Amino acid sequence: MLEREYLQESLSYVLGIQEVQERIKFEFVEIILRFISDWLVFYHLGHEVAEDAKDYLSDLQLKVQKTRENFDETRQKAQELKHRYMESKMKPESEYTKQGYLFLMEKKAFTATWSKYYCTYKKQSKKFSMLQFNQISGRSQSSTEVLTLASCTRRLSEFEKRYCFDLIFEERPAITYTFQALSEEDRKAWLNAMDGKEPTYLAPATNHNEDGHLDEVGFAFVRKCIEVLERRGLEEEGLYRIGGVSTKITKLLNMGLDRKKTEKDRLMFFNDEQSSDVLESKTIASALKHYLRNLNEPLMTFRLHHSFISSAKQETRQGRLSDVHQLIHRLPKNHFEMLDIVIRHLKS
Predict the structure, then answer these.
(1) Was domain 216-347 assigned CATH 3.90.25.10?
(2) CB under 8 Å, gap of 24 or more: what pairs does 340-343 form?
(3) Whole-angstrom distance, CA of residue 57 vs CA of residue 51
(4) Which of 162, 229, 232, 242 is most buried when burial is the number of CB atoms within 10 A of its CB?
(5) Domain spans of the chain?
(6) CATH class of the domain at 98-194
(7) Cα(328)–Cα(62) distance, rounded to whole angstroms?
(8) What separation in angstroms does the CA of 338 have from each of 58, 229, 283?
(9) How far, in Å, CA of 86 to CA of 330, rounded?
(10) Taking a C-beta distance cutoff of 8 angstroms, is the pair 178, 164 a contact?
(11) Which among 182, 178, 32 is positioned nearest to 98, based on CA atoms?
């Protein structure tokens, strides 16, 4: 009897252990499988939501970026206004409207030198004084020269002539003095003190170069250059990037824009074998660029320059296209026709 109960309990115990071990196998796998399934469903739904919200997120990102740029710009302007206000309140009163060091360009044979001057300006009387200093010893080399300001014009920035402006004085109206400030901020301060003007290149020039007109001679030259380039093919590498030899370009322009000759005689050299040295593709392309770049009035015109810039800053593509389309049709007839020729060529 005891032996039977012992065997029964022993077998029950062994079966119980086996049952537990077998149950662990599938129950654990079922838990892992359920977790993986729920995980995949979660990411699948997240992907679909992300795809649906992609356009909204892109638009929101652009708006946030623009808002941040506006914030930075506004903060910078506020800081500048604060700085100016504090400067006007904190700086001691001076008898001069502006004073400081400037460099004067002095032209000599085949070169130009820059001499350092300590300059002052009184806006009420328009008196400008300058005292030359020796940059080695730091002492003055001459007496102070006082002149009466007639005009002040900001100078076009170049690599070696940055921060420059031109002054003309009533005592010497035939001489233009070119001064260089210490920085762009310093130049702005001098221009503000002397009521400086923008350079005349921002307005239509009065003394036009005859070769810079958009007339029949120019149209014929441009059409012929484009015709030759397109006939040869536009596959040449760097056609408008690699410049030609300057002497050949000048020779080509002189022959193609010679107004003393008829159109037939002017353009005859394009078919002349003796002129083959100036008829390389890169020379023709460079001459075409030079002619358009040196027009007295740009193709897009000075008058519409700021309007084109504003149109390019429109937020939507449709808005940009609409504004540019309207501005192009406001161009003078000859400018519109030349622009049409150039764009058709660039599209080919």
Answers:
(1) no
(2) 341/219, 341/222, 341/223, 341/226, 342/222, 342/292, 342/299
(3) 10
(4) 229
(5) 1-91, 98-194, 216-347
(6) mainly beta
(7) 29
(8) 40, 17, 20
(9) 46
(10) yes
(11) 182
